[in-house]
Amino acid sequence: MKRIVVKLANPAFEPDELAQQGAAVAGELAEAEVVRVSGSGRILLVVPDADAAMAVAHLSGLSSVAWAEPDSTDSAQTDAISPGVAQPGIPQPTDGDSESS
């Protein structure tokens, strides 16, 4: 699944209305799911991998959408949450073994 960020052209002020706007945008795409809708009118959607580029192009053409783009994940974010991956400057857990003097 790929994530897409969509910014509504005219976001509602009420949370229920924002949720409805998010559902309407997701309804434009087959198999799209709303992950969350922010108070600023940004919608995070997930779509099947093969449809991501086509989905962005379609959503960008809607009058209710200011812009749409693939969500990018910073490698620092993914590395920080990957277990077992050593990170420079971050102490790593030890297995309890210590060297004897």
Helix-strand blueprint:
Blueprint: E1 2-8, H1 15-26, E2 33-37, E3 42-47, H2 52-60, E4 65-70, H3 75-80
Give an overview of the whole structure:
The protein is α+β, with helices and mostly antiparallel strands and 101 residues long. It has one domain: 2-Layer Sandwich (Alpha-Beta Plaits), CATH 3.30.70.3400. 27% of the residues lie in helices and 24% in strands. It is built from 3 helices and 4 strands. Strands 2-3-1-4 form a 4-stranded antiparallel beta sheet, covered by helices on one side. The radius of gyration is 20 Å and the shape is globular. 18% of the residues are buried. Mean pLDDT is 81; it is low at 75-79.
Give the topology string: H per helix, E per strand: EHEEHEH
Q: Whole-Å distance between the termini?
A: 52 Å
Q: Which stretches are poorly predicted, pLDDT < 50 over at least 5 residues?
A: 75-79
Radius of gyration: 20 Å
- Mean pLDDT score: 81
Beta-strand percentage range: 15-25%
CATH class: Alpha Beta
Percent range of helical residues: 25-40%
Q: What's the tally of helices?
A: 3
